[in-house]
Specification:
Shape: elongated
Radius of gyration: 33 Å
Strand order of the largest sheet: 1-2
Largest sheet: 2 strands, antiparallel
Helix content: 40-55%
Number of domains: 2
Length: 197
Amino acid sequence: MEKQSQYLTPFQHKWLEKSLQEDLPKSYRQRVQIMLLASEGKSQTEICQLLGCCAATVRHWMHIARAGMAHQWQECAVGRPKAANDQYLARLRELVNGSPRDYGYSFRRWTANWLSKHLAKELGISVSDRHLKRLLKQMGLSTIPKPNHVEETAIQAQGSKILINELKQGTTSDNQEFLPVNFEFLRLSDNYDAKSI
């Protein structure tokens, strides 16, 4: 009489055992063994000792087996995710200098989050928002728009709440009358009433 599997269906159990007979990379073989041992009732500690692997790996693949997803053991990639390459950096530069609306998005400015999502979908390379911001900084780029010239030349009057911007000279028509005005410095009192000096 065949021993009843704790987590696996009979089909999954046979399929995993058959997979062990193939020439698998070590990490894939380990996944299969963890699920088979867990299904036989072995504890996390016992599996760690038998296979010489860490508890986090055993816990993850035991969870996969319990969740009925043992057939998906090959779908999880092994190793570190792909790093940003030259193609990724070139495309990132192109996107940042363009508008998200050109790619069907409703917003006007890219964020690190949306750049990351778009590039993951387009190139299959996923990086965190934080890492993407680092890459942008290294490239001298940013998702934050640069202030225009008027904002750059703004001068804050020392000790006051008045902001003076660079004024653009405009054309005036001759039929307008301007009265000469002599401005004196104003001092603000504690209750913000203007007093003349």
